[in-house]
Amino acid sequence: MILDKHNRIHNYLRISLTDNCNLRCFYCMPDADYSFMPSSQLMQSEEINQIAKTFISLGTNKIRLTGGEPFVRKDADTIIKNLSAFPVKLSLTTNGVRLHEFLDTIREAGITSINVSLDTLQADKFQLITKRNNFRRVWDNIQLLLEHHIHVKVNMVVMKGINDGEINEFVAWTKHAPVHIRFIEFMPFTGNRWMDDKVVTWQDILGTIETKFSWIKLKDEANDTTKKYRVPGHQGTFAVISTMTSPFCSTCNRMRLTADGRMKNCLFSKEETDLLSAFRRGEDIVPLILGNVKAKAAERGGQFVEDYHQLQAKGIENRSMIAIGG
């Protein structure tokens, strides 16, 4: 069992396969020229397998693969198939561009739930946000997953003046499709030009939805990051991830492993533990894992002030989102 000093049990590991991506979303990747990690610096497929096995021996029962974009990695299918042999719930987060190429792998691995990042339902705005003309491909791949009865969660980062006018369009999508929309409050990371006036809060999101829809609150599960809702008569649901205004840290069970094998005990932690170097030296990484989690702050990496309007984003010590893993 992996416990922190606040007696939170940690059994959920998020593994980033790469810091590379085939999209260029500004809130994830810094504007400046970004140098991706060389292959030798990344965890290799067997290293991922063995490190994951160590986490599982300590009680981890859920693993999510992230990036960057996990499907741009050449051996992604091998990694997925290897991890699917372990007694864990395996899932992944993707931008959806290459999902159709990996559908057979996903089904063979028994993956039943996938998170797809999609911040707009407008093709021209998709290109503005991602700097790529891939909206139709992502849309078609979401339909492909639904056709194969794979649970689809759509992650939409809500940004004022950019896509907040589409909130009700996303909710309307849930009427005839079993999609599960997750509205995410805009969060600060290195180089993502975060400003407090771009944050659309949980309360603002619900207020917008109330102008068109009535909704009922759904029961949140243990360790949930979301506050979940349903519009009566709709097939799908919607939820809000309220990291900035109402964090869920008190029940957090998550650990993160970056593509270069560094462990983070929180999305916003400035401290990292280099598991990969120790593993390559043949050292026991169990004490490093336990020590990393033991040092976890009570809330949001210990770096946030309670009122996000007072937050000085430049003072936060962290990686860019793409280098952490979604």
Verbal overview:
The protein is α/β, with parallel strands linked by helices and 326 residues long. It has one domain: TIM Barrel (Alpha-Beta Barrel), CATH 3.20.20.70. The chain is 25% helix and 17% strand. It is built from 10 helices and 12 strands. The chain has a 12-stranded mixed sheet with strand order 7-8-9-6-5-4-3-2-1-10-11-12. A hairpin with an 8-residue loop joins strand 11 and strand 12. The chain is globular.
Q: How would you concisely characterize the structure shown here?
A:
The chain is built from ten helices and twelve strands. With 326 residues, the protein is of the alpha/beta class.
How many DSSP-defined strands? 12
CATH class division = Alpha Beta
| Structure class | alpha/beta
Radius of gyration (CA) equals: 19 Å
List SSEs in N-to-C order: EHEHEHEHHEHEHEEEEEEHHH
Percent of residues in β-strands: 15-25%
How far apart the termini lie comes to 24 Å
Sheet of most strands: 12 strands, mixed
Shape: globular
Number of domains: 1
CATH topology assignment: TIM Barrel
Mean pLDDT: 92
